[in-house]
Amino acid sequence: MKDKNIGTKYSDFIILKILKREKFGFVAKVKSKKDDKIYAMKRIDLNLLDNQKHVDYYENEYDMLKKFKPNYENVCKPLCLFPKNNVNYLITEYMDCGNLEELFIWNQKNNERIEEKKLVKIFIQCLQGLNYIHKIGIIHRSIKLENIII
To answer: Which partner for 148 in 4, 21, 27, 100 could form a disulfide, CB atoms 3.0-4.6 Å apart?
Structure first.
């Protein structure tokens, strides 16, 4: 699926910052040349994946993510996917507060504590998100602090 208002190819986006690098690609903060808005781009090079199971997963990732309700607030919303030369580019909404791991590291470095009330709120939102994706038949296989975007 491609959203022409956002962009339909890699060159429709300007990479502003690489947020995370992995052996198969990266996640970046990007700006669309079409609508001038900020998004997240996940680039997955299917040639670099370990086995066919991973290739199948990433080839079907967008179809899986499309099952999410458009306005459900506890999961990241996919906006478009465009494959090119065995590389998938997935565009999602951008969440600008980082991830839970970064929050904990920042608080630890600055010798600050996260309020219990805030932690409970984050925990409940995580459980609501997981409950929702389980109800629609999706299992999250990589629950960790760096994958909880805030």
So the answer is: 100
Given a contact cutoff of 8 angstroms between Cβ atoms, the answer to whether 41 and 11 are in contact is no
pTM of the model: 0.79
Rounded distance between C-alpha atoms, residue 25 and residue 6, angstroms:
21
Q: What is the pLDDT of residues 84-107, one digit of tens each?
A: 888 889 998 898 888 899 999 999
How far, CA to CA in Å, does 128 sit from each of 28, 67, 82, 131? 26, 16, 29, 5
Query: How far apart, in whole angstroms, are the C-alpha atoms of residue 21 and residue 10?
Result: 17
Instruction: Give one DSSP letter per residue of 110-129, joined into a string.
Output: TT----HHHHHHHHHHHHHH
**DSSP annotation string for the chain:** --BTTTBSSGGGEEEEEEEEEETTEEEEEEEETTT--EEEEEEEEGGGSSSHHHHHHHHHHHHHHTTS-TT-TTSPPEEEEEEETTEEEEEEE--TT-BHHHHHHHHHHTT----HHHHHHHHHHHHHHHHHHHHTT---S---GGG-B-
Separation CA 143–CA 88 (nearest Å): 22
